[in-house]
Amino acid sequence: MTPGNAAADFAVNPFGPTPSRSERTERGRAARARVPFDSWADLALAAHRADPLEVLRLQDRERLRELIPLRWERMLQDPFTLYRGAAAVMASDLARTPVTGIKVQVCGDAHIGNFGLFAAPD
């Protein structure tokens, strides 16, 4: 990377210079101070919460009609498959919870286990 060459810098990292490890650690600690873990302990659903079934039905409008019954059949198998099929309901509920300000871009199979985040000592 050429110092002072904005075009070259952008080509390498469009988000700007990468903060040092200590800067990232401090940012994480500041975010945790603003939004501690226990702030998510109780989920207070809004009185005007969207009907979960309606959220799922709205999604059906964008799906292939012949596959909709299969989707619902799979969601009925067990709680895990329901949660996988009802991610929009979870997103709707969590949208009203505290936010750390840390932005993450994810796609595909983006669940917490794939990031190596577990309740382990490390």
Provide an overview of this structure:
The protein has 122 residues and is an all-alpha fold. It contains six helices and no strands. Helix 4 (68-75) packs across helix 5 (79-85). It starts with 5 loop residues before the first helix and ends in a 28-residue tail after the last helix. The model has no long low-confidence stretch (mean pLDDT 82).
Question: Secondary structure elements and their pairing?
Answer:
Layout (H helix, E strand, L loop, with lengths): L5 H7 L8 H14 L17 H9 L7 H8 L3 H7 L1 H8 L28
Helix pairs in contact: 4-5
Which properties best describe this structure?
single chain; 6 helices
Helix and strand content put the structural class at mainly alpha
Radius of gyration: 20 Å
Q: pLDDT under 50 segments (min length 5)?
A: none
The helix content, as a percent range, equals: 40-55%
Morphology: extended
Please give the largest β-sheet.
Answer: none
In sequence order, what are the helices and strands, one letter per element? HHHHHH
Beta strands, count: 0
Q: Could you tell me the mean pLDDT?
A: 82
Strand content: under 5%
Distance between the termini: 34 Å
Helix count, per DSSP? 6
